[in-house]
Design a protein that fits this description.
The protein is an alpha+beta fold and 312 residues long. 45% of the residues lie in helices and 16% in strands.
């Protein structure tokens, strides 16, 4: 590489700072929240959050004493603690839009015969907040607390209504692993998403594989191997798997997801509603009807939150 050539961007997260105990507490809670029904040993948690076993022991012991973690004495494992229930309920009371979204998504899931969820962006991740209904296959299941890195083409509704700087930074992250024609397709899709009011992509082998790779299993960490697999799979997506322009192209493979934004009182995207797990035999008219129904739900949630839709 020529010395004048700027280095390619790396999407790996910065290394943990062991000197910041508050960040380590957050890392433990984020990891366990992404796997709420599972339990982990001290060594497993330490490996995932980048701590020594000694530091992890002090941290986990303190959190367990406050009931923020539960410790199984027999198996010497940890899981989310009961004290977090009160904190979660307090957060829901503060962010009432989540309960509004839950109510409307429950109705939507029945109407669409699909799985419906809401997610937000937190620390560079897409975090699932609410889930209602079921996908047609276990491969498309979403869990509350699930985290996926916000890498192109993930989270387009969070980006499409953002500032020019946000959009350029997002598109720039695609350069190391997405071919130029696909990056051009992604850029052209953003104004179309704003015009339509939703994002949509088609099913395909690449979409299914990349989604499974992005959602980490409990025995994975975001190391170099993880990012290499994610980049390779995302780089193989077709244009329709990135963003669907012509709905007729989805009549064979079907729809992977439809997403619509919910706006805050400040006219920013508070979170997005996502419908997945559709029947694979939908025609264009049915696809358009599902998109309209999802947008109507997002509009209801936005209105009840006193949100404002920004000018396109």
């Amino acid at each position: 590489m020529d010395e004048s050539t700027p280095p390619r961007r790396c999407l790996e997260l910065p290394l943990p700072d062991p000197s910041n105990p508050t960040a380590r507490v957050m890392d433990v809670l984020k990891f366990l929240a992404a796997h709420p029904t599972e339990t982990f040993t001290l060594a497993e948690i330490a490996r995932h959050v980048g701590l020594s076993n000694g530091s992890a022991h002090r941290l986990l012991t303190t959190m367990a004493a406050g009931q923020f973690l539960s410790r199984n004495e027999k198996h010497r494992t940890y899981s989310l603690g009961i004290a977090l229930v009160a904190i979660g309920q307090a957060a829901i009371a503060k962010h009432q839009g989540i309960e509004i979204a839950r109510r409307e998504l429950a109705r939507l899931a029945v109407d669409l015969r699909a799985q419906c969820s809401a997610n937000c962006v937190a620390e560079g991740d897409i975090v699932v907040l609410v889930k209602e209904g079921s996908a047609q296959s276990h491969l498309g299941l979403t869990r509350v607390g699930e985290r996926r890195p916000l890498v192109p083409p993930v989270g387009l509704c969070h980006i499409a209504w953002g500032s020019n700087a946000l959009i350029e930074d997002y598109l720039g992250k695609a350069e190391p692993f997405m071919a130029a024609p696909l990056r051009d397709h992604l850029r052209a899709a953003l104004p179309l998403i704003r015009e339509r009011g939703y994002a949509i992509c088609a099913n395909g082998p690449g979409a299914a594989a990349s989604r499974q790779a992005l959602v980490m299993a409990s025995d994975q960490v975001r190391d170099a191997a993880y990012w290499a697999r994610v980049h390779a799979l995302v780089g193989e997506l077709s244009a329709d798997e990135i963003q669907l322009i012509d709905f007729a192209a989805a009549e064979g493979p079907g729809i992977s997801y439809i997403a619509a934004p919910v706006f805050s009182p400040a006219a920013t995207v508070a979170f997005q509603l996502v419908a997945t797990g559709f029947p694979t035999d939908m025609n264009v008219r049915e696809i358009e009807a599902c998109a309209r129904r999802l947008c109507a739900t997002a509009a209801i949630v936005t209105a009840e939150m006193h949100g404002r839709v920004p000018a396109v």
